[in-house]
Amino acid sequence: MRAVIKVGTSTLTYGNGNLNIKGIENLCKVLSDLKNAGNEILLVSSGAIGMGVGKLGLKEKPADIPTKQAAAAVGQCELMYVYDKLFSEYNHTVAQILMTGDDFSHADRYENFRNTLDRLIELDVLPIINENDTVATSEIKVGDNDTLSAMTAVGASAELLILLSDIDGLYTADPKTDKSATLIDTVEGIDENIISLAGGSGSSLGTGGMVTKIHAAQLCCENGIDMVIANGSDPNVLYDIFDGKKAGTRFIGRKA
């Protein structure tokens, strides 16, 4: 199976921006095992700005663009260093791909992106993709890595997209404020009711939230790709998802 796994800032770092060592070690171990089993894995990883905040000793995520981009530049180095070190322990080679919105909207760049992904996978390399936050501005930003991962899944002709976050999936109501809220395990189609269940943004260090995840699901489903939202606190949930077991919320892609 060719699958794109997106991991959010809240899964990779603590609230202060410092690396969640246990979390990222477990993630790399499980992804390496799934790759060993013959699956083609592409990782979309948030966390550059969050890790940059921690590395620079900033008290909170910066609000101004230059400091955000500076934090991303510092954090991306740290992020890839950690991934390279951990995946190499399981004999897997990683590659970094940094994207902007322009790369998806220009036909030549998009084709080059797709060709590079295919060749890396042929070479048994694990691509790690992130938005190029060091140069991206509002005009060229994809905006969030939920959308970026969906666009990557489409470009890579993946069968499955998995969004790992700090939430268990889509609920009938906000579980933080409504104790009667229940987890929706399967979504066959995205209608106005499903869209209305999306709330606001996610963690203070991240940029996503349920709104961006529903948007990603729409893009995937329109292209026949299943998408799963699951809690990334325990990466072992990936085994259940790859085995087709119920975990989180699965959006069923419309097959042609």
Question: How would you explain this protein's 3D organization?
Answer:
The chain has 256 residues and is of the alpha/beta class. Helices cover 43% and strands 17% of the residues. It is built from ten helices and eight strands. An eight-stranded mixed beta sheet has the order 3-4-2-1-5-7-8-6, with helices on both faces. It is globular, with a radius of gyration of 17 Å. The protein starts with a strand and ends in a 5-residue tail after the last strand.
Ranges where pLDDT stays below 50 over 5 or more residues in a row are 200-208
Q: What is the mean predicted local confidence, pLDDT?
A: 87
Spatial gap, N to C terminus: 18 Å
Backbone structural class:
alpha/beta
Our Rg estimate from Cα atoms comes to 17 Å
- Helix percentage range: 40-55%
The 3D shape can be described as globular
Report the portion of residues in β strands: 15-25%
Discrete helix count:
10
Beta strand count: 8
Question: Which strands sit side by side, in order, in the main sheet?
Answer: 3-4-2-1-5-7-8-6
Main beta-sheet strand count, sense and barrel state: 8 strands, mixed
Question: What is the chain-wise order of helices and strands?
Answer: EHHEHHEHHEHEEHHEHE
